[in-house]
């Protein structure tokens, strides 16, 4: 880590990727414009030409959400259709180049022993990627649990569970891709974005390469997906991280950061944001909801389906997370 944590090397290419392209304006939140069925068909046809295998990743609701936003160069009009197509093509291109399309395959691979993987024709290189992804999951430092009052999935970040120094930036980025894609997969009908809540107690020192890679992922791979990031408490390390990232953020992305100095402020925020109000507030923010029952700081969850883990290195209760989230989704939809 540099002696000056507020200064780190960011390549000109990275800066151009983040701020130089008007197509990544960070989602102007000023209301939506109408998009016709014919225009939706045109967008999907264009995307199907270049990325036919990935088209199912984009729901009609999400395409309409992206297309309906105000144009960054003139917010009194809607984004031009060509602009939306370019934005979504860039998203799908990023998914291919970043390896996002293979993260769920790596998750399944991590449930196998190396012997089983080799018997199935898996290369040692791919198995190593799977092991590294599983190791990041096993910290239980990031997971999806519950919804906000509008039905957006909530991604929880437990900074104090992160290693002091990130051993593998690519694996850590893959972790966020995996859980972001999982959150997208369990969105109720019509929902297109998610919320992130960060317990920012005792975070590790900032890793420049990880921070830039993560920000590029949000901007390129998940445009218009982040509704809000709530973070508390804001100590010196997290303040440094924010100071490093905000100058690199495009458009209005910085306005989606809700930073609180004290956990008491987070309690009040979550009481208003979460689907079940105070009942959903976890113990680490002063509530009664015990996340550690499912996502312990170390080892296996007590109610975990051990057979579903297989013979590999994965300990994170992904099947349990999936089942719980679907049950909460069903409960939320019944109350609508």
Automatic annotation (TrEMBL):
Which PROSITE patterns does this one have? Answer: CRAL_TRIO
Signal peptide feature range: none
Q: Which Gene3D superfamilies match?
A: CRAL-TRIO lipid binding domain (3.40.525.10)
- Every copy of the CRAL-TRIO domain together lies at 132-293
GO molecular function list: phosphatidylinositol transfer activity
Q: Which InterPro entries match?
A: CRAL-TRIO_dom (IPR001251), CRAL-TRIO_dom_sf (IPR036865), PI_Transfer_CRAL-TRIO (IPR052578)
Q: What's one Pfam family the UniProt record gives for this protein?
A: CRAL_TRIO
Q: What is the protein's given name?
A: CRAL-TRIO domain-containing protein
């Amino acid at each position: 880590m540099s002696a000056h944590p507020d200064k780190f090397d960011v390549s000109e290419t990275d800066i151009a990727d983040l701020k130089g392209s008007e197509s990544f304006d960070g989602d102007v939140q000023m209301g939506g414009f109408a998009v016709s069925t014919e225009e939706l068909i045109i967008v999907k046809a264009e995307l199907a030409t270049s990325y036919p295998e990935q088209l199912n990743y984009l729901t009609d609701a999400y395409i309409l959400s992206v297309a309906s936003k105000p144009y960054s160069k003139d917010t009194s009009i809607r984004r031009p259709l060509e602009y939306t197509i370019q934005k979504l093509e860039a998203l799908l291109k990023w998914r291919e180049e970043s390896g996002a399309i293979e993260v769920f395959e790596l998750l399944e691979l991590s449930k196998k022993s190396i012997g089983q993987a080799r018997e199935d024709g898996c290369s040692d290189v791919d198995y190593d990627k799977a092991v590294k992804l599983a190791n990041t999951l096993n910290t239980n430092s990031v997971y999806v649990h519950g919804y906000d009052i509008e039905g957006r999935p909530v991604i929880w970040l437990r900074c104090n569970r992160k290693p002091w120094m990130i051993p593998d930036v690519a694996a850590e980025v893959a972790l966020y891709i995996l859980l972001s894609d999982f959150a997208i997969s369990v969105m109720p009908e019509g929902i297109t974005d998610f919320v992130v809540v960060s317990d920012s107690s005792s975070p590790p020192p900032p890793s420049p390469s990880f921070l830039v890679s993560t920000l590029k992922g949000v901007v390129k791979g998940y445009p218009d997906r982040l509704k809000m990031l709530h973070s508390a408490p804001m100590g010196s390390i997290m303040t440094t991280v924010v100071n490093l990232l905000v100058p690199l953020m495009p458009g209005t992305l910085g306005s989606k950061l809700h930073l609180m100095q004290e956990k008491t402020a987070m309690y009040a925020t979550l009481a208003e944001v979460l689907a079940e109000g105070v009942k959903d507030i976890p113990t680490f923010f002063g509530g009664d909801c015990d996340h550690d029952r499912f996502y312990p700081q170390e080892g296996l969850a007590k109610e975990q389906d051990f057979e579903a883990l297989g013979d590999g290195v994965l300990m994170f209760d992904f099947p349990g997370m999936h089942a719980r989230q679907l049950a909460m989704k069903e409960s939320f939809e019944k109350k609508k």
